[in-house]
Design a protein that fits this description.
Distance between the termini: 82 Å
CATH class of the largest domain: Mainly Beta
Structural class: alpha/beta
CATH architecture of the largest domain: 3 Solenoid
Helix content: 10-25%
Strand order of the largest sheet: 8-11-14-17-20-25-28-31-34-37-39-40
Number of strands: 40
Number of helices: 5
CATH topology of the largest domain: UDP N-Acetylglucosamine Acyltransferase, domain 1
CATH superfamily of the largest domain: Hexapeptide repeat proteins
Radius of gyration: 26 Å
């Protein structure tokens, strides 16, 4: 990443070395780490700690993997500054404030040094009224509608559909099979993975006297901010009126449903298979674990954490952790889990007491 360096030239030099070999000291300089071992050891690949090989760089962030550091064959391992070992370690250690984040930044450098796709395929279909920026990649069978705006350095992989009046910001990537319906807006530096659908109709129907459902036209759109990442096969529905909003730095996993007129606050992250019902507002830096369901027209505050498979049926204030179905305070739900485990024993005790009472009568 450019802020690791005083100039792009230095960044590019490192990228060239990364393709071949580089030293532990070079890595430590980039991630502001301290070295414990051989600073001149050479690295030519990245590997998992349990599958370490000579010339490999690994990392240790999860304590569950601590035992592997004593036997790994990796040449160097990135660890946290406070890591304490109780056996001899053969690998050179690079100590950092956050080993996982340090590795992520190194991988980011590696990713960015790969040759970038460019050019427009002759098999793409682009409306004459569409505006196409500089240095774009538009793959085969991409379809771009009327008056769409594609900014500079955008990558549209094969079979992407961009509807009429869609706006896509700088350096955004849409992987193969992404569909963006008309009038939607996507910000800068955003990544949308294969199969995601942005702007399909919200689930709006009015029940008629005969019991049939009359479709309510969905005339709004979806507005997605900057530095957002949306996982494969995730669906974000357009608003009935106005906009469904995904703010900056939101991270959505695969297979997530965000219904019409929802608003997802800045820095929020959802794990896979979450479902958010219509018109729910979710605050900043919220974390929803896997398979969380949220009913409609709710407000979830900032810095909330919702445990896996929870069902949220009421508003949640700021800075709260909840769990369960329906979701309640995580501490209270953990107590209930303990109580539920004891139910068979309590049931048996009640039966014994009832029999004893009958005999005494």
């Amino acid at each position: 990443m450019l802020y690791f360096y005083s100039s792009f030239k230095k960044h590019f030099i490192f990228a060239e070395k990364f393709l071949m070999t580089f030293t532990v000291s070079q890595i430590a300089e980039i991630i502001s780490g301290s070295i414990e071992g051989n600073p001149n050891a050479t690295i030519h690949t990245i590997c998992k700690i349990e599958e370490g090989i000579a010339g490999g760089l690994s990392f240790l962030a999860n304590p569950k993997y601590k035992d592997f550091i004593y036997e790994t064959k990796a040449t160097a391992v990135i660890v946290n500054k406070d890591f304490v070992y109780d056996k001899q370690i053969q690998a050179t250690l690079i100590r950092t404030e956050n080993s996982y984040l340090a590795l992520a930044k190194l991988l980011d450098v590696y990713q960015k040094m790969k040759p970038k796709r460019s050019g427009i395929s002759a098999q793409a279909s682009i409306a004459e009224t569409a505006i196409i920026g500089k240095n774009v990649y538009i793959g085969a069978f991409v379809c771009i509608g009327e008056f769409a705006e594609i900014a500079d350095d955008v990558l549209l992989y094969p079979h992407v559909y961009v509807g009429d009046n869609v706006k896509i910001g700088n350096n955004t990537i849409l992987y193969s099979g992404v569909k963006v319906y008309e009038d939607c807006e996507i910000g800068n530096h955003t990544i949308i993975h294969s199969g995601a659908v942005i702007g399909a109709d919200g689930f709006g129907f009015a029940q008629q006297e005969d019991g049939d459902h009359f479709k309510v036209p969905q005339v709004g759109n979806v507005v997605i901010g900057n530095h957002v990442e949306i996982g494969a096969n995730t669906c974000i529905d357009r608003a009935t009126m106005g906009s469904t909003k995904i703010h900056d730095h939101v991270k959505l996993d695969n297979l997530i449903q965000v219904a019409h007129n929802c608003e997802i606050g800045e820095g929020t992250a959802f794990a896979a298979q979450c479902g958010i019902s219509g018109s729910t507002k979710i605050g900043k830096r919220v974390i929803l674990a896997g398979q969380v369901g949220v009913t409609g027209h709710l407000k979830i505050g900032d810095n909330v954490i919702v445990g896996a498979q929870s069902g949220v049926t009421h508003n949640i204030p700021d800075n709260v952790t909840v769990l369960g179905r329906p979701a309640i305070s995580a501490l209270e739900e953990k107590k209930l889990i303990i109580y539920r485990k004891k139910l068979p024993e309590l049931f048996h005790q009640i039966n014994v007491l009832e029999k004893q009472m009958k005999k005494s009568e």
